[in-house]
Amino acid sequence: MLDDLFDPLDAEVYAHIRDIDDGRALGVRETTPVILVSVIKLFIAWEFRCRVAEGTIDPATPIRVTAADRLGGTGTAGFRHDAHIAVGDLAGLMMEVSDNTAADVVVRHMGAGGLRSLPARLGLTGTRLIGSPRAILEELARDLDVNDLEALAPVLASGSVSTAELRGTSVWDPQRTNASTPVDLTRFLEHVWNGPPEVARDVRGWMRRQLTGRLARLAPSEVVAHGRSGSLPGWLNEVAVWEWPDGRRHAIAVFVRTSRPNFREVERAMSLAALRLTEKLSAGNA
């Protein structure tokens, strides 16, 4: 159903779509484990916002973000100076600009135990949550014999590490890193959309403001899209919910493993795949 979009790109797709309201679903390799990369931030956001609703975390609590916390990248991860930021705003930066340092700080503030137990509490049997971005990147640095995280970023940016080498690391292995399946991910999105209203409202709002969405690039302009993407050399991922003017709500997960640095072409194919999934699901309801 989707392979014709990705085979010419030397890529393999794992995808699933679910109608949030009536439960109809379809997919391609939807039960195959996939690595989450920054899609982990959606789970972090949900657990954090649930803690706020329970009253165990005050989102206004100021957190000092220092050089020791920074990983490099967007948001606080790329700050040049120390800053005090409310933990609730760090959660927003984590989701909206995929701030890795913000994700680490939020997890540290609330504790990683709740994040790790979240899949079991929600019945997501194909999902494993190990830790925040720093924990995963530290494993990658060890696998590549890089001294520390400061040295890792230029190594990855230089292209000196091949896709084949990356595939041998723990970050690429769903058994050793944050991982899920497309079917679990759409089930989780269904839970988010139907969850406690005040919690769901904030998580949906963060997803709506994501700056680097992929799936909605070719979506009709009347679609309201919410997303959370992730990437690693050789992987491009996104989960999303599309809300249609007629009331349909589609939870979509598209994960792609590619052996070539053809990310622009793959991203376009991902959006085409999302369109095809929505059309096929809707046709089944005609």
Automatic annotation (TrEMBL):
Superkingdom of the source species: Bacteria
Q: Can you give the residue ranges of the Beta-lactamase class A catalytic domain? A: 16-256
What is this protein's record name? Beta-lactamase class A-like protein
Organism field: Stackebrandtia nassauensis (strain DSM 44728 / CIP 108903 / NRRL B-16338 / NBRC 102104 / LLR-40K-21)
Q: Name one GO biological process term.
A: response to antibiotic
List, alphabetically, the SUPFAM superfamilies matched: beta-lactamase/transpeptidase-like
Q: Which Pfam families match?
A: Beta-lactamase2
Q: Give the Gene Ontology MF terms in alphabetical order.
A: beta-lactamase activity
Looking up InterPro entries in the UniProt record yields: Beta-lactam/transpept-like, Beta-lactam_cat, Beta-lactam_class-A
